[in-house]
Automatic annotation (TrEMBL):
Stored PANTHER family: BLR2520 PROTEIN
Organism field: Actinacidiphila epipremni
Protein name: Glyoxalase
Family matches, as InterPro entries: Glyas_Bleomycin-R_OHBP_Dase (IPR029068)
C-alpha cells in the first residue's frame, strides 16, 4: 500500500507558515513548507482536514490558529456530523478542523490527530481508478461523490477524493480558481501527476 510521508505547501513566507503549523496546529513532519514558485488565485482544488477527538479540541485549535494568523472562513459549528470549522492558513491553504463527536468526553486533550488531504476531482471514478492502480486500497467509497483510501500503517496523511465543486462548497469558498495547486505530495519512488494535475514526488532524502 502506498505510504504518504508528507505534504509540502508553497508559501510566500515559508518561515512564517512553518511556525503557524508547528505552533498553532501542532503539526510537524506531516506538513512541510516550501517557497512559492508559481502564481495561484482562488480555490486551489484541495483542502486539508485535521480530525480530532472532541469538540473542545476543535474549538481550541481553531482559536489558536486564528490568533496565529489564520483567517476564519466558516466558524466552528455543530452539525449532524459533529463539529467543525474552516480557516485559511497564512500561506493560503484551506484547513477544516473537525470531529465526529457530538459531546466532549473530557478536557481539551489533543490525543491522536488525523490529517486528511482531500483532492478536488472532476471525475471521481477516474481518480479512484488511477489511485487504485498506484497501490492505494479503498477504505470508503460513495459513488461519484467521495472516496477515502486506506492509509498505510504509520502514514501521517490519509488521502481522499471529493467532487471539486462539492469540496469548495464544504469549505465555504467559490470553486473558481486558476494557476498552481501549490501542493506537492511526498510518496513512492517516482514523480507523477494525477488526472487533476496534483503533483507527487519521492520523499526528500533525510
Amino acid at each position: 500500500m502506498t505510504y504518504i510521508e508528507s505534504v509540502t505547501l508553497d508559501a510566500e513566507e515559508p518561515a512564517a507558515a512553518r511556525a503557524f503549523y508547528t505552533d498553532a496546529l501542532g503539526l510537524d513532519t506531516q506538513i512541510r513548507v516550501g517557497p512559492a514558485r508559481e502564481p495561484s488565485t482562488g480555490f486551489r482544488g484541495y483542502t486539508l482536514s485535521l480530525v480530532v477527538a472532541q469538540p473542545a479540541t476543535v474549538r481550541g485549535l481553531f482559536d489558536a490558529a486564528a490568533a496565529a494568523g489564520g483567517t476564519a472562513v466558516k466558524p466552528v459549528k455543530k452539525s449532524l456530523w459533529g463539529h467543525s470549522g474552516v480557516l485559511r492558513s497564512p500561506d493560503g491553504a484551506l484547513w477544516k478542523i473537525a470531529t465526529s463527536a457530538k459531546k466532549d468526553t473530557g478536557p481539551d486533550d489533543r490525543g491522536e490527530d488525523k490529517v486528511v488531504l482531500l483532492l478536488g476531482c472532476d471525475d471521481i471514478l477516474a481518480g479512484k481508478r488511477f489511485y487504485v492502480g498506484r497501490g492505494f486500497g479503498v477504505a470508503k467509497s460513495f459513488g461519484r461523490k467521495y472516496v477515502e483510501f486506506a492509509a498505510a500503517e504509520g502514514s501521517p496523511v490519509t488521502l481522499a477524493l471529493y467532487q471539486r465543486r462539492a469540496l469548495a462548497k464544504d469549505a465555504g469558498v467559490s470553486p473558481e480558481g486558476t494557476g498552481a495547486h501549490r501542493l506537492a505530495i511526498a510518496a513512492g519512488a517516482e514523480s507523477f501527476t494525477d488526472p487533476d494535475g496534483f503533483a507527487w514526488q519521492p520523499p526528500a532524502a533525510g
